[in-house]
Design brief:
alpha/beta; Aldehyde Dehydrogenase, Chain A, domain 1; Aldehyde Dehydrogenase, Chain A, domain 2; 2 domains; 7-stranded mixed beta sheet; 6-stranded mixed beta sheet; globular
Length: 478
């Protein structure tokens, strides 16, 4: 079996213990053994990033740009290979895996350009004879903690801006999907960065996360994951005045109005709720439908679900891959029982499925006759489960959509410009989709939400500089 090591101070470093990477489409398929890092190794990685920062912060912006461009070029050249690995370890379909790898390459190339565009200002002072400059500088060593559902794209959109703006990195990927992270780290290790500028350590959060959150040498933490862990990150960083950026999920609504293009609305619902096995923080798990169109919409969605092909992620024609692991599958099944216990009607799906290989396959589930007080409409399930809530009109739809502690993404299907305009203004979400699925975003524009979904500056695009740089104001009396 192949064994893979951590990257610390430019050296591949092993461990006495290993994580076993299992294919959720075929649990007999072992992808490899990955060195499980220790707290001591995490401290070594932090020290490496700390030592490397002094020179890297003053490095040529052209050198940074060239390194990031080389990383992006290699990812794009190997997108099929990386996409296959991603699909094999996480359960996305092969086209989805290749698409995610492509996005990661594009992100690095975008930030190769941003490295050359670190702008400042020169202003006149209110005091005669004084010059004023406003410019940006890197923050310092940054801990990057990423989830399992986008194992190459999310690391890319955090690592690339960190490096572009002159920071050093200690990267902790989700231990459930170490293969994509290791492949990305291996590419980065050959891109011309000085030793210690980029470090990766794989391991369990209880072991590795502690030093990353509490070590004074880490000046900022960028985290994507659960709300529970996000609160831990916030408390730890606040206690020592470190920067932190949190992305913590959603319970995203898709409003379907009577005047919509029905076929498009059905497509938006199915794509948004069930593709990537529903394992997206932007998935539309609440389908809020006006009464006049409700029955017709529900029947079309049911038929669409029943036609979906759920199978091995690498099989030709598969539309929905497996759930990522047994624990997540058990969680999904518990929520199916919770929904039924609350009085919701399970119209279709929810059960496990057997395929030619042993895996964590589940038929996408659709609940109807639900309301916004039910747990299935209030708690993030993170699986192929969606609920329909019937409403009387647009005003009730907006009220129901906003009745959540989350606020990441939200969508509406309508042919009314007035309704679309009101929705964009009144919905409490960081990202708004009109006649498009709630899941699916571009890499060059900001990503993030409101309320319990996000905290801190936006990720991606030009807005990433607000987290990865510090603004300094300089006064000069010539």
């Amino acid at each position: 079996m192949d064994k893979f090591q951590n990257l610390i101070a430019g050296q591949w470093t092993g461990s006495d213990d290993h994580l076993i990477n299992i294919n959720p489409s075929d649990t007999n398929d072992i992808i490899g053994e990955y060195a499980k890092g220790t707290a001591a190794q995490a401290s070594d990685a932090i020290e490496a990033a700390h030592q490397a920062f002094a020179d890297w912060r003053h490095s040529s912006i052209q050198h940074r740009s060239d390194c990031l461009d080389a990383i992006g070029n290699e990812i794009l050249a190997r997108k099929d290979e990386l996409g296959r690995l991603l699909a094999r370890e996480e359960g996305k379909t092969l086209p989805e895996g290749i698409g995610e790898a492509t996005r990661a390459g594009q992100i690095f190339k975008f930030f190769a350009g941003e490295a050359l565009r670190i702008a400042g200002e020169t202003l006149q002072s209110v005091r005669p004879g004084i010059d004023v400059e406003v410019f940006r500088q890197p923050v310092g060593p940054i801990a990057i903690i990423t989830p399992w559902n986008f194992p190459i794209a999310i690391p890319a959109w955090k690592i690339a801006p960190a490096l572009a703006f002159g920071n050093t990195v200690v990267f902790k990927p989700a231990e459930l999907v170490p293969g994509s992270a290791w492949a990305l780290a291996e590419i980065i290790s050959r891109a011309g960065l000085p030793n210690g500028v980029f470090n990766m350590i794989i391991g369990e959060g209880a072991e590795i996360g502690e030093p990353l959150l509490h070590d004074q040498r880490i000046k900022a933490v960028s985290f994507t994951g659960s709300t529970k862990t996000g609160a831990i990150v916030a408390e730890a960083c606040s206690g020592r005045n470190a920067r932190y950026q949190l992305e913590m999920g959603g319970k995203n609504p898709l409003i379907v109005l009577n005047d919509c293009d029905l076929d498009n609305a059905v497509n938006c619902a199915i794509q948004g709720a069930y593709f990537s096995t529903g394992q997206r923080c932007t998935a539309s798990s609440r389908l809020i439908v006006e009464a006049k169109i409700h029955d017709q919409f529900v029947e079309k969605v049911r038929l669409g679900i029943d036609d979906l092909i759920v199978d091995h992620a690498l099989a030709d024609g598969t539309q929905i891959g497996p759930v990522v692991d047994h624990a997540q599958l058990e969680k999904n099944l518990r929520y199916i029982e919770i929904g039924k216990g609350e009085g919701a009607q399970l119209l279709t799906g929810g059960e496990t499925i057997e395929r030619s290989t042993p895996g964590f396959f589940q038929k996408p589930a659709l609940f109807v006759a639900t309301d916004d007080t039910m747990r299935i409409n209030r708690e993030e399930i993170f699986g192929p489960v969606a609920s329909v809530i019937k409403v009387d009109d647009f005003d009730q739809a907006i009220a129901v959509a906003n009745n959540t502690s989350f606020g990441l993404s939200a969508g509406i299907c309508t042919n009314s410009l007035r309704s679309a305009s009101r929705f964009k203004s009144e919905i409490e979400a960081g990202m708004v989709m009109v006649n498009a699925p709630t899941a699916g975003v571009d890499y060059h524009v900001p990503f993030g939400g409101t309320k319990g979904s996000s905290f801190g500056p936006r990720e991606q695009g030009g807005y990433a500089k607000d987290f990865y740089t510090v603004v300094k104001t300089a006064y000069t009396n010539p």
